[in-house]
Specification:
By secondary structure, the protein is α/β, with parallel strands linked by helices. 23% of the residues lie in helices and 25% in strands. It has a 9-stranded mixed beta sheet. Helix 2 links the parallel strand 4 and strand 5. It is globular, with a radius of gyration of 17 Å.
Length: 206
């Protein structure tokens, strides 16, 4: 198991998406991705050539220097790496951990307090063996009512579903989201669906 990770950036900011919106966090962005979506807003994270190769100790020291005890591990796609030792040692150093993942790969949930899964078009795959808190569903031309209902069917009563416009054509994406809200659903499901926003873009922070 490697204790070296390719890091694009480590920085302090505010969570701008999902259930943890508004919380001050450290973003730990790892390099490399297994999807490379065309509307991705962090394309610089796709290649490990752009990364710093850091030991877990170096990552912990840099995070401690920022003075915030909540870390969001993101990418790229962080689960292309084994996160067991990294998450364990960050947790032992006193950090509360969140994970942002596309949901394709299995990962060990043990040390993550919060996990947001963002299944990507066109196939919207979520690994049946992973545990997560919420879904952030990027809405583009690939979404259909059938796919939407299939994803909803995989959730439980504690999980929220955020419908998030894709960035290249947000107006068209919002029109698709409005149609999804019009689909007749049970009270259990309809009460858990939210319009997902990227508030950090309005705040003027990363």
């Amino acid at each position: 198991m490697s204790n070296i990770y390719p890091v694009i950036e480590i920085f302090k900011s505010f969570q701008g998406e999902g259930r943890e919106i508004g919380k001050e966090v450290i973003f730990l962005r790892l390099a490399g991705c297994n999807l490379k979506c065309p509307w991705c807003d962090t394309k610089e994270s796709w290649s490990v050539k752009n990364s710093r190769k850091m030991t877990i100790t170096e990552i912990i020291d840099e995070c401690l220097a920022l003075g915030v005890k909540r870390i969001v591990i993101t990418g790229g796609e962080p689960t292309i790496y084994n996160l067991d030792m990294l998450s364990k040692e960050l947790w032992e150093a006193g950090f509360t951990l969140s994970l942002e993942t596309n949901g394709i790969n299995y990962f060990n949930r043990q040390y993550f307090n919060y996990v947001a899964v963002s299944p990507k078009p066109p196939h919207y795959i979520i690994n049946d063996d992973i545990s997560y808190n919420d879904i952030k569903l990027v809405i583009d031309e690939n979404i259909t009512e059938e796919i939407f209902l299939e994803i909803l069917g995989k959730t439980n009563i504690t999980q929220l579903i955020y419908l998030q416009p894709e960035g290249t054509n947000p107006i068209k994406s919002l029109e698709r989201i409005k149609k999804l809200f019009e689909i007749p659903l049970s009270k259990n499901l309809s009460s858990r669906i939210r319009l997902g926003i990227q508030a950090h873009k309005y705040w003027g922070v990363l």
